[in-house]
Amino acid sequence: MIIIGIAGGTGSGKTTVVKSIMEDLSQDEVALLPLDSYYKDSSHVPVEERQNINFDHPDAFDWKLLSEHVSMLRRGEAIEQPVYSYLTCTRQPETIHVEPRKVVIIEGILALSDKELCKLMDLKIFVDADPDERLIRVIQRDVIERGRTAEAVMDRYIRVLKPMHQEFIEPAKRYADLIIPQGGHNRKAIEILQMYIEKMLGR
Predict the structure, then answer these.
(1) 41: which residues sit within 8 A by CB, 6+ positions away?
(2) How far apart are CA 13 and CA 184, in angstroms?
C-alpha cells in the first residue's frame, strides 16, 4: 500500500493533481480521504458561534481520527469515513465505507501539517501556485459554485485565507518529497508523479 499526502493552498490545483492520479489507476486500486471530511464535529457549539470557526486552522481537524483511519487501512481494515456538513458545521450520521486499496490519497490544504499523520505517509506532495492565481481561482469558485460576492471572497481571503496560508500551509512545504509548481497546469510534474506511483506499485 502507498499512502500519499497532497497539500497546498486553496485554489492551488490539488484537486486537478488528485484527479490525474486517480484517472491513471483503476477504481479498485485507489481510495481518497479528503481532509475536509475530518473537520471536528461542532454540534456542541451554539449555532450563532459556528460561523466563527476557522476552517483553515489545524485545530479545526480531528487529526487523531484521521491517523487512526489511515493506520487501519494500512492494516487491511475498512473504515467508515465521516461526512461533514459545511451548512451546519456538524458531522453527519451517515458515513462513507472505504476499503483498503493499493493507493490511499489524503488530500487537503493542511494534509502535511500534522507530524503524526506525515509519519504514516510514503509520499508527501505540495501543490504550489502563484498567490494571485490562487486568489483568482478562489473568487471564480466561490462566486460561481457558492453564490458569494467577489467582495466577500476577497475580504475572507485577506482576513483568513492569506494569514492562515502564511502561518500553516506554506511552512508545510519543507516536509514535502515533491513540490509541484504551477499546480494542476504542470503536466510534466504530474506525469513524473504518475510514473513514480506505477514504479512503487511494481509495474
Answers:
(1) 62, 90, 91
(2) 5
128-152: per-residue pLDDT in tens? Answer: 988 778 777 777 777 777 677 878 7
How far is the CA of 57 from the CAs of 46, 72, 114, 176, in angstroms?
Answer: 20, 26, 12, 19
pLDDT in tens, 66-83: 999 999 999 999 999 999
| CB contact burial 39-67 (16+ within 10 A = b; e otherwise) | bbebeeeeeeeeeebebbebebbbbebbb
Q: Where are the beta strands (DSSP E) in the chain?
A: 2-7, 30-34, 79-85, 90-98, 103-107, 123-127, 178-180
Give the global pTM: 0.89
Cell numbers placing 56: 483553515
- In angstroms, how far is CA 13 from the centroid of its own chain? 11
Q: What is the largest CA-CA distance in the chain?
A: 53
> Residue type for 67, please?
S
**Phi (first) and psi of residue 64, to 5 degrees:** -60, -45
